[in-house]
Amino acid sequence: MLNVPSQSFPGSSSQQRVSSGGRSKVPLKQGRSLMDWIRLTKSGKDLTGLKGRLIEVTEEELKKHNKKDDCWICIRGFVYNVSPYMEYHPGGEEELMRGAGSDGTDLFDQVHRWVNYESMLKECLVGRMAVKPAFPKGMLPKSQVTDPLAKEGPSSPSYDWFQTDALVTIVIYTKQKDINLDSVIADHRHDSFRAETVIKDYSYLIHIALSHEIQEDFSVRVVENVGKIEIVLKKKENTSWKCLGHPLENHNSLIPKKDTGLYYRKCQLISKEDVTHDTKLFCLLLPPSTHLQVPTGQHVYFKLTITGTEIVKPYTPVSDSLFSEFKEPVLPNNKYIYFLIKIYPAGLFTPELDHLQIGDYVSVSNPEGNFKISQFQELEDLFLLAAGTGFTPMVKVLSYALTNIPSLRKVKLMFFNKTEDDIIWRSQLEKLAFKDKRFDLEFVLSAPTSEWNGKRGYISPALLSEFLKRSLDTSKVLICICGPMPFTEQGMKLLHDLNFSKDEIHSFTA
Ligand code: FAD
Ligand code: NAP
C-alpha cells in the first residue's frame, strides 16, 4: 500500500493530480519529492551499499537483486541499485519493481526515455554488465564487418559531398518524398558536424569530425520531390579539402528513432513576457550553428542543472501569437522558438526557468512526439480539447489547420481552466473566432466566479456529446486532447464511449 500524505496532494492546482486507474503519477510521501531525492544524493550517503566501488555485474548476480529493499536494474548496460529511490519514484514502487533484477531498458524507454537517469541515479550506480563473448575469439560480429546501415526500415539513405573554393556541400539522398526542412536537425560544434534526418520512425545520422575549420553558420536546402537535402558549410579558409573528415559515433547509420539519444544545444533566453498571472511566453534563440525546426504537434526537452543534478522536462513550442501567420515577423522566425510555460511556485523546474535572466542559456533537445501531419489529410472537422497548458500543442495545430487544409470546414476548441484569469491568450482566441468563421471556441471553467455565464465543470459525457457534432454525418474528424494526465485519460475513455475510433483521436503525451 502506498502512503498518501495527510495534506491534500496533489493540490487542486497541481499537474500531479491522480485519477483512479490508468498510468499516472502516484502520490508521494511527504519529503519524497524530486528535490528531496537530489538532496539525498548530495548528502554523501552510500546509496549502493558498495562504498563507492564499481563492479562488473553478471546476469546471475543481477537476477538475485529483485526485492524492494535490494533491487538492481540494468539500463543500457549500466546497473543501478534503485532501492533507495523506490519511495521517490513518481510512477510508484510497483512500476519500478517491474524491472527488478533484470534489464529494464525497454520498460524505461516505453515510459520515459527522456528522463535523465544517468544524472539522477549516478549515486546508485553499481557498475556495468559483464559482457559475454558472443563470438569465438578472432571472429568479428557481423555488424562490424558489414555496412552499418539497418537492413530493415526505409530504403537506405546515403550521402556524398563536394566543394568549391569557399563552400563544402553535404548532400543526403533520403530516397523519400515527404522530406522537408523540419526533417533535418543539424549542429556544428567545435570541429564536429552532426546532422540527423528523420525518415519515418528512423534517424539517418551524419556525424563527422571535419577535416578543416568552418564558419559558425551554414544553410540547409531540401529538394522535396526527390528527397534530397543539401547542407552548405562555409570554409574558414579557401583551401581544398582532401576528405570531409573522419566518422564519429553512428556516422552514416540508420537507426530507429527511439534508439537515438536526445541531443541538446544551448539556447539563449531572449525575452520573457507575462501571459496570465502564472504563465509566461519565453522566447529562446537557437545558436547560429544549429538548424532545427520543431514540427507541428511535437515537443522538445529542456535540460537544466539544479543543485548539481541534470533535470529534463518536456515543453511544446508555440508561435509568438495566434496571428503570427498574418503579420510580418519582427524576428526571422526560424531561429526563435517560443514557449508558453506555467510557473509552479512549489515545482522543481519552472521556478529555475523563471529565475533565468535574459541572456542566460538553457539546453534544448531535438524534437520528439508522435503527431503526424498526415493525420490532417482530407480532414473536415477538427476538435481540440485542452486543459491548462495542454493548450500549447493546440496553438500550432490550430494555425496549421486553418492555413494549410483546404478540406477543413470546422475547427472547435473546448478549453478547460479553473478561472477566467487562467485562460491563456483569451482575447487572441476570441479575435480569431470572430475573424475566421470556421473557428468556434468554448471555455469551460471548474471554479468560476458567480458572474461567469459560460460553461462550468469538468470534462464529461454531456459536455463532449454536445460539443463533438460533425458538420456533416460523413465528415472526416480528428479530435486532439491534451492536459493533466488524468484529464487526458478520462477524455480518451469518454471519446471511446462516444464511438470515436482510435484513428480519429490524438492524445498528446510525452
Ligand atoms: P513539478 O515539480 O513537477 O511540480 C508540479 C506541481 O506538483 C507543483 O504544484 C508542485 O507543488 C506539485 N508537487 C510536486 N511534487 C510534490 C510533492 N511531493 N508534494 C506535493 N506537491 C508536489 N508545461 C508548460 O507549462 N508548457 C508546455 O509547453 C508544456 N509542454 C509539455 C509537453 C509534454 C509532452 C509534457 C508531458 C508536459 C509538458 N508540460 C508543459 C509540463 C512540464 O513538462 C512540467 O511538467 C511542468 O512545467 C512542471 O514542472 P515543475 O518541475 O516546475 O513542477
Ligand atoms: P490545471 O490548471 O491544473 O488544470 C486545467 C483544468 O483542468 C482545470 O479546470 C482543472 O480543474 C482541470 N482538471 C485537472 N485535473 C483534472 C482531472 N483529473 N479531470 C478533469 N479535469 C481536471 O492544469 P495545468 O496546471 O495547466 O497543467 C496542464 C497539464 O498539461 C500538465 O500536467 C502538463 O504536464 C500537461 N501538458 C501536456 C502536454 C503534452 O504534450 N503532453 C503539453 C502541455 C501540457 P481543477 O483545477 O478545478 O481541478
Key features of this structure:
binds NADP nicotinamide-adenine-dinucleotide phosphate, alpha+beta, binds flavin-adenine dinucleotide, single chain, 510 residues, disordered N terminus, globular, six-stranded mixed β-sheet
Question: Can I get a quick summary?
Answer:
The chain has eleven helices and 29 strands.
Question: How would you characterize this protein structure?
Answer:
With 510 residues, the chain is α+β, with helices and mostly antiparallel strands. It is 16% helix and 32% strand. Strands 20-19-23-16-17-22-21 form a 7-stranded antiparallel sheet. Strands 1, 2, 3, 4, 5 and 6 form a 6-stranded mixed sheet that branches. Strands 9, 10, 11, 14, 15 and 18 form a 6-stranded antiparallel sheet that branches. The two termini are 27 Å apart. The model is unreliable at 1-24 and 133-151 (pLDDT under 50). The protein binds flavin-adenine dinucleotide and NADP nicotinamide-adenine-dinucleotide phosphate (NAP). Flavin-adenine dinucleotide is lined by residues 9-10, 14-16, 28, 33, 299, 313-316, 339-342, 344, 346-350, 389, 392, 510.
